[in-house]
């Protein structure tokens, strides 16, 4: 199991506070104080989880997340944002950049550790599901390589976009409610804002075509091929 966690925050007391609690649980911890350091360290440290502050000097967390997702071996790394801001737009921007979860400051130690432990356990079980390649007309979705091919053009999707597409396409024609999508793709222990699914659907439509995923008003979405 990869037990490495990278903490990125420009507030030293918060970094030490989180580090102390993580190391007490047996995790290997590395730290960075800004987004540029985070990208450099993450490439070498190869963490399973990155805890990333949004507001930082040199490079903010949103920009750092985009850069981290460009590194092949970090495409499936879980990225959790820390923020003192409650504005919904910052959360949407974070998910849009490739983030997986949000935690608001001030941090509650028990709640944070419970969420981290749940994330790490879930990551430990990744790969146990049946890896079936899906084909729908000129679209192919390969869960082994996480590559999507559209009209013979290959593309590598961010982790949550891929998982969302694979879920919908695995049962073409079936309507998935928002609640079921959130449980299946983000899990019960991850907090996401209401528009998170909409953002990911929009980005998928931009990449694979806007007619493949249909909106069922007031219910959810279905894949139509």
Notes on the structure:
The protein has helices at residues 12-24, 35-45, 61-69, 88-97, 109-124, 159-170, 178-186, 196-208; strands at 4-8, 28-32, 49-53, 78-83, 101-104, 134-136, 139-142, 147-150, 153-156, 176-177, 213-216, 220-223. It is α/β, with parallel strands linked by helices and 225 residues long. It folds into two domains: 4-124, Rossmann fold (3-Layer(aba) Sandwich), CATH 3.40.50; 134-223, Arc Repressor Mutant, subunit A. It has a five-stranded parallel sheet with strand order 2-1-3-4-5, with helices on both faces. Strands 6-7-8-9 form a four-stranded antiparallel sheet, with helices on one face.
Core attributes:
225 residues, alpha/beta, Rossmann fold, Arc Repressor Mutant, subunit A, five-stranded parallel sheet, four-stranded antiparallel sheet
Short summary:
By secondary structure, the chain is α/β, with parallel strands linked by helices.
């Amino acid at each position: 199991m990869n037990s490495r966690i990278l903490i990125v925050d420009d507030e030293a007391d918060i970094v030490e506070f989180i580090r102390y609690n993580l190391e007490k649980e047996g995790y290997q911890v590395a730290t960075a104080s800004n987004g540029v350091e985070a990208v450099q360290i993450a490439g070498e440290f190869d963490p399973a989880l990155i805890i990333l502050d949004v507001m930082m000097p040199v490079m903010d967390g949103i920009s750092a997340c985009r850069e981290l997702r460009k590194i092949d071996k970090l495409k499936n790394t879980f990225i959790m944002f820390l923020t003192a801001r409650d504005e919904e737009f910052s959360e949407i921007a974070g998910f849009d950049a490739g983030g997986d979860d949000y935690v608001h400051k001030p941090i509650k130690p028990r709640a944070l550790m419970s969420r981290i432990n749940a994330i790490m356990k879930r990551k430990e079980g990744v790969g146990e599901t049946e890896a079936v390649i899906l084909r729908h007309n000129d679209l192919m979705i390969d869960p082994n390589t996480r590559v999507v091919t559209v009209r013979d053009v290959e593309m590598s999707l961010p982790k949550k976009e891929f998982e969302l597409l694979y879920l919908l396409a695995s049962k073409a024609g079936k309507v998935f409610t928002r609640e079921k999508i959130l449980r299946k793709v983000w899990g019960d222990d991850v907090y996401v804002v209401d528009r998170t699914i909409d953002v990911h659907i929009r980005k998928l439509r931009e990449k694979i075509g806007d007619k493949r995923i249909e909106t069922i008003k007031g219910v959810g979405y279905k894949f139509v091929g």
